[in-house]
Amino acid sequence: MKLINNPDRSQWAEILKRPVMNTENLFDTVRGIIDRVKSDGDRAVLEMEAKFDKAELTSLAVTEAELKDAETLVDEKLKAAIRLAKQNIETFHAAQRFEGKKVETMPGVTCWQKAVAIEKVGLYIPGGTAPLFSTVLMLAVPAKIAGCKEIVLCTPPDKEGRVHPAILFAAQVAGVNRIFKAGGVQAIASMAYGTESVPKVYKIFGPGNQYVTAAKQLVSLRDVAIDMPAGPSEVEVLADETANPVFVAADLLSQAEHGVDSQAMLITTSEALQQAVKEEVGRQLELLPRKEIAEKSLANSKLIVVKDMEEAIELTNEYAPEHLIVETADYMQVAERVVNAGSVFLGSLSPESAGDYASGTNHTLPTNGYAKAYSGVSLDSFIRKITFQEIRQEGMKNIGPAIEEMAANEHLDAHKNAVTVRLKTI
Known about the structure:
Elements: E1 2-5, H1 12-15, H2 27-40, H3 42-52, H4 64-73, H5 76-94, E2 103-106, E3 109-117, E4 120-124, H6 133-146, E5 150-155, H7 165-174, E6 178-181, H8 184-193, E7 203-205, H9 210-219, E8 225-226, E9 234-239, H10 245-256, E10 263-268, H11 271-285, H12 291-298, E11 302-305, H13 309-319, E12 323-327, H14 331-336, E13 343-346, H15 352-357, E14 383-391, H16 393-409, H17 413-423
Parallel strand pairs: 1-11, 4-5, 4-7, 5-6, 7-8, 9-10, 9-12, 10-11, 12-13
Antiparallel strand pairs: 2-3, 3-14
Helix pairs in contact: 2-3, 2-8, 2-9, 3-8, 4-7, 5-6, 5-7, 6-7, 8-9, 10-11, 16-17
């Protein structure tokens, strides 16, 4: 990890650079796969599965028999953990239900909003080296609470054509309606446009590699909504001299093992902590099964010392991390000043892993600095708000002349007339 001490403000932009993920240079390749799926449906997806996932499939849908088998293949301890996580995610997201109220903006004019679920949503769940069954819960549970009528899930199978049983079990627990064996670009295209097997959805959620990210970007240009822009995962620990270097190192490594392009950052006011964390990262790294991945990720990672907490908070808000862990003596006061972050973990006993799995908050979060403008996935991600208005006789008398005046000055005479004909009747 790179050690940086008391950088000048002019160096901040360079220091806070993320690993580059240029999806634009993949667009031609990705567009070709999307077009094949649009024209050839299931046949194209089956061919792509054989080519990219090395799985020879005869059909895409996961069968009832496979779902029942998953029940027996998942360890009872993991089942209990999944159920506990599901309960906490459900509790947290259910509390976000929208309660619209009618507002009388002036006598005779009443306006209100109604929350309506997105009827059909698609969830993409990566497989590969780390099958993300936790992401199934993070996406399907709020979708179910929102009232989405059709929850479709796509995930890549292994070379034997099987989906990881924990993904299937989590999908059943969370209320997914239909599950398909499709990964990568072909999965995104299937949900965006529909095939003989896979239904077309209105919004696609979920993380993925650079090809999946590029596919989501392309289909979102005109055909389907997506959850948010995505990039490699990241964590920042904001710490003072009271932080435990063992905890800090463990938190940095828990992010580094995600992938070779992940980024882990420490911003601290203590040079002693910087040195202790560096040594502890080296010690813990040797014990990790995913050491090779974490080691490459650490090349993108930095341990930064700044002069005081004021500067540490400013640098943090400029970075806008996906995950932020605050390990300081006065962490609640520091947290009040955080304005750019995806999800924040407070105190020494709140590791990022808690939010990744079971505390109840959502782990689908904005990366790559998008936390300056985007929120993470929440119940709102699965609903739309429709506005209503009712104008009665008194209301038309009150606002009608103003509407006529404004419409006339915008030279929209038909707009004006729509009010004038009504005013003549009251």
